[in-house]
Amino acid sequence: MEKKRICYLVSSLCNEGPVNVMYNIIKNIDFLKFEVSIITFVPEKETTRMHDFSKLPISIYQLSKNKFLNPISLYLRLKDTVNEIEPNVLHAHCPRSLYLMAFLPKKFIKIFTIHNYPNEFQIVLYGKIKGEIVIFDDGINAKYGVDLQGFDFVKIRAERGGKMHHKFCVIDNQTVITGSYNWSDNAEYKNDENISIQADPQQATKYSVEFRNLRTQTKK
Question: Is the pTM above the cut of 0.70?
Answer without folding.
Answer: no
